[in-house]
Amino acid sequence: MNLTRARRRAAAAGFPADRPRPPMAVDFRRLERLRWLARLMDTRWRIPIIRVRIGLDGLASLAPVVGDTLTAFVSLWIVYEATRFDVPKSLILRMLLNVGIDWLFGSVPVIGTIFDVAFKANRMNVNLLHAHLEERLGGRPPDP
């Protein structure tokens, strides 16, 4: 982001561009619900013998396209909730890419189920959201 654009955004927000952003209000209950949902979708149970964690996303992928489409809607809801935290569009696009990859490769029969168990898009998205919020709350500007 160039300096002029940053100044315009800062002026619109009502504070100078050379100062750090004011602290943002974070709804920690919403954040905790997203964390709980991501855990339910990706890592809720552990398969004892091979010690691999699975969630509803991995189980639903046993029904190739239908199960992955239903869980993709839950994943999109997590991304929607992330937009309510006023995160940058680049972060939202990255989260949408994770959901798209999860849906696309997870929809392949048999191999898609293995992929869904290994690729934990919801956990990655919630971790991206947490990292961004920690940077903003810590006073450092987020990485571009």
TrEMBL record:
InterPro entries in the cross-refs: DUF4112 (IPR025187)
Residue spans crossing the bilayer: 54-80, 100-119
A Pfam family this chain is assigned to: DUF4112
Keywords recorded for this protein, A-Z: Membrane, Transmembrane, Transmembrane helix
Name of this chain's protein: DUF4112 domain-containing protein
Record organism: Azospirillum cavernae
